[in-house]
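Late entry, flavin-adenine dinucleotide complex.
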Amino acid sequence: MYKILKAEKLADKIILMDVLAPRVAKHCQPGQFVIVKMDDKGERIPLTICDYDREAGTITIVFQEVGASTTKMADLKEGDAFRDFVGPLGCASEFVNEAPEELKKKKMLFVAGGVGAAPVYPQVKWLHEHGIEADVVLGAKTKDMVILEQELEAVSGNLYVTTDDGSYGRSGMVTAVIEDLVQKEGKNYDVCVAIGPMIMMKFVCLLTKKLGLPTIVSMNPIMVDGTGMCGACRLQVGDQIKFACVDGPEFDGHLVDFDQAMKRSQMYKTEEGRAMLKLTEGDTHHGGCGNCGGDN
Amino acid sequence: MADVLKKVPVREQEPKVRAANFEEVCLGYNQEEAMEEASRCINCKNAKCISGCPVAIDIPGFIKEVKEGNIEEAYKVIGKSSALPAICGRVCPQESQCEGKCIRGIKGEPVSIGKLERFVADYALEHDINPEGPETTNGHKVAVIGSGPSGLTCAGDLAKMGYEVTVFEALHELGGVLVYGIPEFRLPKQKVVAKEIEKVKELGVKFETNVVIGKSTTIDQLIEEEGFEAVFIGSGAGLPMFMGIPGENANGVFSANEYLTRSNLMKAFDDSYDTPIAGGKKVAVVGGGNVAMDAARTALRLGAEVHIVYRRSEAELPARVEEVHHAKEEGVIFDLLTNPKEIFVDDSGNVKGMKVIKMELGEPDASGRRRPVEVPGSEYEIEVDTVIMSLGTSPNPLISSTTKGLETNRWKCIVADEEFGKTSKEGVYAGGDAVTGAATVILAMGAGKAGARGIDAYLKNR
Ligand SMILES: Cc1cc2nc3c(=O)[nH]c(=O)nc-3n(C[C@H](O)[C@H](O)[C@H](O)COP(=O)(O)OP(=O)(O)OC[C@H]3O[C@@H](n4cnc5c(N)ncnc54)[C@H](O)[C@@H]3O)c2cc1C
Ligand SMILES: Cc1cc2nc3c(=O)[nH]c(=O)nc-3n(C[C@H](O)[C@H](O)[C@H](O)COP(=O)(O)OP(=O)(O)OC[C@H]3O[C@@H](n4cnc5c(N)ncnc54)[C@H](O)[C@@H]3O)c2cc1C
Ligand code: SF4
Ligand code: SF4
Ligand code: FES
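Prediction complete; structure with ligand written out below:
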């Protein structure tokens, strides 16, 4: 069992937890993820490592309630435990293995959308600890959904916060901010790292392709084992098929087939919809939604 | 009195009934039936059957005890050579191993060695009879990677010799393919697999789940930082292959591993578990091995019409004959000498059909089997909503790519000798599918035993 040492609500439906998992904490690097499983009957849920404390042996995760499993997970309190917590999985971000002198010459722009702030944070923090200040665009739907602002502020060069509805920071989507920075504010970047909902990464990539700005994205397809055993997480990247869990999760965003990836992530929509109804409506859900026709 | 040339028939669930449930298909012998079948064994002096068994169980020895009703004694005889008899009795390809060599098979049917072994092992599980316990520990620490049959066997054997063994497993359950691949209706998880693993635990073996070697820690770190003096790699061959045909990334195309893992490991067939599975209404399973049969029969039980699409003919099907027989009885349709060319996808990204081509058998290839060649112009379309690719698997490079000085061959298999499982790296031994590529449970067990011998010799001579 993997004990939850802290559980905190960051925003509506966004939860942060510190979990005791010394083996993971000892070896993890920015860019990697874990898979958690609540109990005997739970799903295996992949979540990016948001922070780690090697001494205390803890891993920080931040997740959004989107479906049945994450909603149930949100009920866990400090002192509860996950049945399973495995990692670190996937490859570390490429820059971790780059020569420090080379890396210092690069101007990097991070783009975080929604809970994407969680996976962006450890990367920017790592760079900061290695003397590199990267710029960060932090986007959210609205003011209340902006997360990890102080944390990012402390480790980034310039932090540009934006909200879709203009209720906080700049106004508009992250793509508009990137465009402004590069085209109006004369910023020059060598590489962009964009992490957030697939649709956001797709549009960031369309833009940066036009701007000639190489872009890395962190893909979050549906996974089962996370060790390369099932192929559920496969993606078309250029002319190759890649398994996100072992070859990624980070890829060259200009090569990823986002449209296919987005369709693949809808795969279990009806099934999961039923699971969600079962969870929220208990035994009364059968036959009510007009969708699945009940279990008979 | 029954016909002595024939096996005592084994009771099975009716095909119509079992096609709709996940309970075990074969019900096994009771003691009376087992004793009757045992009496068909003529206790050969130079027993050929033993040479057909990769772990050389003293087959006439244990059958003699069964004949006399001494089931506990029979279990002890088997226990000397095999740590997982309830499993092997169920899944070994007996027709090409022990039973394939049995003298009785020349004129009639061979002795039903597998079913007898299963009976003895089940009896031991039910009556809590344990294998001979460990001596006092010798203080030497050995790490075993993977809890499939090779790892379990190696760990069990080393524990019996007095080593302090820890098994590291990447998944959240123990058993490897036995829990994530082979379905419940062929190998019950709680009743059989979990109980046999319990026996390995009783020998003093420690288990740590959720540890991916190569990620959570490495072999070098196990040796340098955690004090393990030797390591056995039994990590299997889990990486699924795809065909590389158009449409293969559509929703509704699965590797057999994914389909089976969702159903077996994650128990998607049971509504009270959270993991979903898209069972499909009309399913094509591509391939003809045990894995393909398991995927097909799982899809059938989830309510689909199922076709096996296999490019050679029935004679070449690599699956156990019993599985092919069971699949047919249950209503799986065999589209033989047929191969997929393309998968058709609708606008939402879902499978809507598949183009296949007829094949004929040409000259024998390297495997000795006649090579299938396409019949020009014979393409046609079949309507399916799900395609399960069961084309074989290869070893995962996670371990070999993170371990200094560990030699692999061009199929990414770890290079290890057969007798002791010795690899190119000192103190590191390997066996099972990780070395041979996808093979069988009993070969993996044999390799686990070899590894245990190798590690024992290595640590004694240090
Ligand atoms: C490598 C990786 C890292 C991830 N890191 C994080 C993280 O740090 N924080 C976080 O909140 N989430 C993260 N995710 C996504 C997270 O795993 C999913 O949100 C979660 O599995 C949903 O489970 P559920 O049962 O609650 O929802 P479901 O009921 O499975 O899904 C609800 C809805 O979300 C969609 N969906 C399902 N899976 C995903 C997915 N992987 N990505 C996007 N949409 C999906 C479905 O189409 C469905 O409509 C990550 C995913 C991967 C693969
Ligand atoms: C669906 C299916 C049906 C089959 N049917 C039969 C049959 O009827 N009869 C028969 O004889 N054989 C059958 N086989 C083949 C047989 O199951 C395998 O040959 C056998 O299980 C191999 O054993 P193993 O110990 O080498 O590996 P596995 O059983 O594959 O176990 C390897 C274990 O190592 C773990 N692992 C892998 N990498 C790591 C890592 N980096 N760190 C930690 N742990 C790791 C895996 O999670 C797994 O648990 C079947 C296989 C499948 C897939
Ligand atoms: S272990 Fe397998 S091959 Fe050996 S006797 Fe038993 S069933 Fe036959
Ligand atoms: S070959 Fe057949 S008859 Fe002879 S000992 Fe073996 S099982 Fe018995
Ligand atoms: S999640 Fe199974 S291979 Fe990636």
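Chain B has three domains: 11-126, 141-238+395-460, 242-391. Will revisit in the morning.
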